[in-house]
Design a protein that fits this description.
Elements (H helix, E strand, L loop, with lengths): L8 E3 L6 E2 L17 E4 L8 E6 L17 E4 H10 L15 E3 L15 H6 L9 H12 L1 H9 L13 E4 L8 E4 L4 E2 L1 H14 L3 E6 L6 E5 H17 L8 E4 L5 H12 L9 E3 L6 H11 L3 E5 L2 E3 L2 E3 L1 H14 L6 E5 L17 E3 H4 L12 E2 L3 E7 L7 E6 L1 H14 L7 E4 L6 H13 L3 E5 L10 H9 L3 E4 L1 H10 L2 H4 L8 E4 L6 H11 L6 E3 L34 E4 L10 E7 L9 E2 L3 H8 L7 E9 L5 E6 L3 E4 L2 E4 H9 L4 E11 L3 E10 L7 H14 L8 E4 L13 H8 L16 H8 L4
Parallel strand pairs: 1-6, 10-23, 12-13, 12-14, 14-17, 17-18, 22-23, 22-24, 24-25, 25-26, 35-36
Antiparallel strand pairs: 1-3, 2-6, 3-4, 4-5, 7-8, 9-19, 10-11, 15-16, 20-21, 21-29, 27-28, 28-30, 30-31, 32-33, 34-35
Length: 775
């Protein structure tokens, strides 16, 4: 068991204390302050009570200056909770010094502190036991030692027309032993739409709300119960079958965040129009340009494209149908003609009469789909039949079509959703991602609905009409689980606490982070301000390719460290290797790889299995190479350092951009930062930092020096930025991803090679950055 040498800081509130988070030493830029900070004098297992005296939390004094000691009580139950929570999962080292906190109100502060959930939360968590990590350890050990038994037991909770045979899984991820192959539940037949909808309706939950929809403008809303959602899915399924969508036919979905988007996804899954390596569905993010959309259409050659006439995103109207028209024209020029464009009339954004139309190809959704029956039999498909194709694009080259199959993906996304968010049937869940990305597939549509959850689908922008919109929605629908990207967290953090604190947010129970490593200062703001220092943060690491969470905290199961993804999910065997592929034990940094397959893994890159093997399995034979760097600390916690191609080599020092960004953002006047590498005639590469300041802070040479000094102090002189580029905003996609490719071009002054910027949420940011490049 990990040893606790002492408990450092405590908080007193009305003579009652509870375990919530670590040492609350106040540090800038936090505005909130703990009620009263107290220092523990002594404690023992045998004593039923322990005494502590008043302190100011700023040093080692036992009482605040000018005050006399004040006494209160801490029960031994709280101390036993600290000790049991300190028993970390297997692989973690002993804790020689634990900065734990017993408090009523507090702040998560130092980056390496452990943030504890309350005893009340842990007692009700899905993974819980007298020793809080024992439940996880037992389940994890079985999942890696007996994956067939572990996953078949979980899979048996779903509906299968036929069970798998003769084995649960088969794999070869070593290119030296032949073709890479991953199969789970092969031979079994199922349908993911049936499991997400019919199974819930048949269980008596047809009247439960499946989707709350919130429009762009406050006051625009709607909802569907599970029974109503099933009816609408069946109507669209019947229409697609009526127009000839069948085996081998693809459907491209290019829709904004309307309820019709998950309806279309589930309808395609219901009719099972698939055959080997030819998926029935490809959802394309409704922010891609006509050129990008055309690339994807040309690749999968769909029989039908589903879109809508327009969408309102904040004050801006985006004419999606016109983008589709341009893409289809481009495809026709390349010899690919699409016979049907099913268009949903989004009346809140654009009237039907204003929509450009091509007779014979374009059909209004509202004119045809409601005429079809609300009953549609499902097509039972093999577990290894493709479910969807999702394109990911790098900075160059053809987009990669990531192919996910049905059975393993279904089991894995449902299970990761359940445990990583500690899901309860009473929860209202909101993930801010768009369904055009893997997060929207796994954790807007499939994972939640497979668990019978109520989800929120939001059409608009999180800062419209102001930066309090998210919390207005949280209060309106009583959202209890809120899952978003670090970029949005940092953006809202920049706008100030007042937009958060004007709303109650009492319904929130669990927070989540996705998309990139979240820097500790943003983590602490998310925890302290948004979550009122009471909501665990499920800081998830995973990829489009993995299908679901790979490394993530299980709320209530163990203490967290701000910025760390913590420990692996069930069935996941992460290893850190050096440049030669040797596994590194203990505290280390290196390349993150996965040692065994898992049910949610992608099976290939569409039409290019050779690229699949070359990209993911040849760099380190015998492993799946994630492309990410990772550090593991002395306690066994995992810290993702970003893509290895985001590593800058400065005079022989390999520096992760995420590490430098985190140091910059820790400065009280820095709201956000993005770092890229540029050529340097002496050092090989130099560090170029784009910095967005807190609202109202002016640019200055003194501030520039202060930012550089912050990096020097936290990392070292070798990591100091060579250039600070003031950035009113950063180029981001609508999902919140920073387009570092564009930043690299600006930093290297390759302004004629910026490429397509139409997918950005605000393309004008690029011009602003260019205009400030000499400042």
């Amino acid at each position: 068991m990990a040893q606790i040498s002492h408990i450092n800081y405590c908080s007193y509130s009305s003579h009652r204390v509870s375990l919530v988070s670590p040492s609350p030493r106040p540090t800038a830029p936090f505005k909130a302050q703990p009620s009263t900070l107290l220092r523990l004098v002594r404690w023992s297992h045998s004593a039923p009570r322990c005494r502590y005296s008043l302190g100011d939390g700023m040093g080692t004094r036992s009482a605040a200056a000018g005050s006399s000691p004040r006494r209160s009580l801490v029960t031994s139950d709280h101390l036993r909770h600290v000790e049991s929570m300190a028993q970390l999962p297997s692989g973690a080292g002993k804790i020689s010094h634990l900065n734990a906190v017993i408090l009523g109100e507090s702040l998560a502060s130092e980056e390496n502190d452990l943030v504890f959930p309350s005893p009340e939360f842990s007692a009700q968590a899905l993974v819980s036991s007298p020793n809080r990590c024992a439940g996880y350890q037992q389940m994890y050990r079985r999942s890696v030692e007996d994956p067939a038994g572990f996953w078949s037991e979980i899979a048996s909770q779903f509906c299968w027309k036929e069970k798998w045979h003769p084995e649960v899984y088969a794999e070869n991820i070593d290119v030296g032993k032949g073709t890479v192959r991953i199969e789970w539940f092969k031979g079994a037949t199922t349908n993911i739409c049936y499991n997400a909808l019919d199974r819930n309706v048949e269980a008596g939950n047809g009247g439960k709300v499946a989707i709350y929809w919130e429009g762009n403008e406050p006051g625009q809303d709607g909802q569907l119960t599970y029974a109503e959602l099933l009816d609408k899915v069946c109507q669209l399924s019947n229409y697609l079958k009526h127009v000839g969508v069948g085996k081998g036919d693809a459907v491209v979905i290019y829709l904004p965040m309307l309820m019709e988007l998950p309806i279309a996804m589930l309808a395609c899954a219901r009719i099972g129009a698939v055959h080997r390596y030819s998926p029935q569905m490809s959802v394309v993010f409704a922010g891609f340009s006509a050129e990008s959309l055309a690339q994807r259409i040309l690749d999968c050659k769909p029989k039908v494209v589903i879109t809508c006439n327009a969408v309102q995103r904040g004050p801006k109207t985006i004419h999606l149908k016109e983008i589709v028209d341009s893409a289809l024209t481009e495809c026709a020029n390349d010899g690919i003609s699409i016979g049907l464009c099913l268009t949903y009339e989004n009346q809140s954004a654009m009237e039907r009469e204003a929509t450009k139309w091509q007779e014979g190809r374009d059909v209004w959704w509202q004119d045809v789909v409601p005429k079809f029956s609300t009953k549609c039999l499902v097509e039972w498909v093999d577990a290894e039949d493709p479910l969807f194709l999702l394109y990911t694009s790098g900075s160059t080259g053809k987009p990669k079509g990531v192919l996910h199959t049905t059975g393993g993906y279904m089991v894995y996304t449902a299970t990761t959703f359940k445990y990583a968010f500690d899901y309860k049937p009473s929860d209202i869940y909101w993930c801010t991602a768009d369904c055009g990305w893997i997060t929207g597939h796994s954790y807007v549509t499939y994972g939640p609905l497979l668990n019978g959850a109520t989800i929120v689908v939001f059409e608009g922008a999180p800062s419209y009409p102001d930066s309090g919109r998210c919390w207005d929605i949280v209060d309106k629908y009583k959202v209890s689980i809120f899952y978003t990207a670090p970029t949005l967290v940092r953006s809202l953090m920049r706008d100030g606490d007042e937009y958060v604190t004007r709303y109650s947010r009492k319904s929130l129970r669990v927070l989540g982070s996705v998309g990139e490593p979240i820097n500790p200062s943003a983590w602490r703001w998310f925890f302290n301000v948004v979550g009122d220092s009471r909501c665990p943060i499920s800081d998830t690491w995973w990829q489009t390719e993995t299908g679901g969470f790979m490394i993530a905290p299980l709320p209530g199961a163990w203490p967290q460290k701000p910025g760390s993804a913590t420990f692996p999910f069930f069935g996941v065997l992460p290893v850190i290797v050096d440049e030669k592929g040797n596994e590194i034990e203990g505290e280390c940094s290196g390349y993150l790889c996965i040692k065994k397959s898992w049910p949610g893994a992608f099976r290939t890159l569409y039409g290019d299995h050779e690229r699949f093997e070359t990209t993911y399995f040849k760099p380190f034979p015998g492993y799946y190479f994630t492309g990410d760097g990772c550090s593991r600390d002395k306690d066994g916690y995992h810290w993702l350092t970003g893509r290895v191609d985001d590593v800058i080599n400065v005079s022989g020092h390999r520096i992760g951009t995420a590490e430098v960004e985190s140091a910059l953002v820790s400065h009280p006047q820095c709201a956000e930062a993005a770092v890229v590498g540029v050529e340097h005639e002496v050092k090989g590469q130099g560090i170029y930092a784009f910095v967005t300041l807190v609202e109202g802070v002016p640019y200055s040479e003194e501030l520039q020096k202060s930012l550089i000094l912050t990096v020097r102090n936290q990392i070292g002189a070798f990591a100091a930025p060579d250039k600070i580029h003031w950035a009113p905003g950063l180029p981001k996609t609508r999902s919140g991803k920073i387009m570092r490719r564009i930043l690299r071009k600006i930093a290297s002054r390759q302004l004629d090679e910026l490429g397509d910027t139409s997918t950005l949420a605000d393309p004008s940011v690029v011009d602003q950055l260019i205009s400030l490049s000499d400042c």
